[in-house]
Amino acid sequence: MRRLEIRQEAEVEILDAALRYERERRDLGFRFESEVDVTIRRAMENPLQFPEIEPGIRRALVRIFPYGVFFLVEEPLVLVIAVLHLHRRPDAWKDRL
């Protein structure tokens, strides 16, 4: 069974984005967090379904929102290193390796 670890920076990114969406429209922040959660669960269940964007780094796209979950797999660990807006600083995860 796989184990999940989410880096603190990624947790902060999720919360910051959720707050921004919530200010935009009531319950949109909750919807964002829910979609990120679904994306992370999909990555846990079958990480190899997501493309490698760099050696060892995979990206899962969040449905509805322009965000990506960037993670690596070191069985049995799935490590989420970033959750980033794909049109802003999509390469910011590279600083975390």
As residue ranges, the low-confidence spans are none
Average pLDDT: 94
- At CATH level 2, the architecture is 2-Layer Sandwich
Q: Name the strands of the widest sheet in spatial order.
A: 1-5-4-3-2
In the CATH scheme, what's the topology name?
Answer: YaeB-like fold
Helix content estimate: 25-40%
**CATH top level?**
Alpha Beta
Question: Please, could you describe this protein's structure?
Answer:
This protein is α+β, with helices and mostly antiparallel strands and 97 residues long. The chain has one domain (3-96): YaeB-like fold, CATH 3.30.2310. 36% of the residues lie in helices and 30% in strands. It contains two helices and five strands; from the N terminus they run E-H-H-E-E-E-E. The protein has a five-stranded mixed β-sheet with strand order 1-5-4-3-2. The chain is globular and about 40 Å long. The two termini are 25 Å apart. The model has no long low-confidence stretch (mean pLDDT 94). This is Plasmid stabilization protein. InterPro entries: RelE/ParE_toxin_dom_sf. Keywords: Membrane, Transmembrane, Transmembrane helix. It comes from Sorangium cellulosum So0157-2. The chain crosses the membrane at residues 64-87.
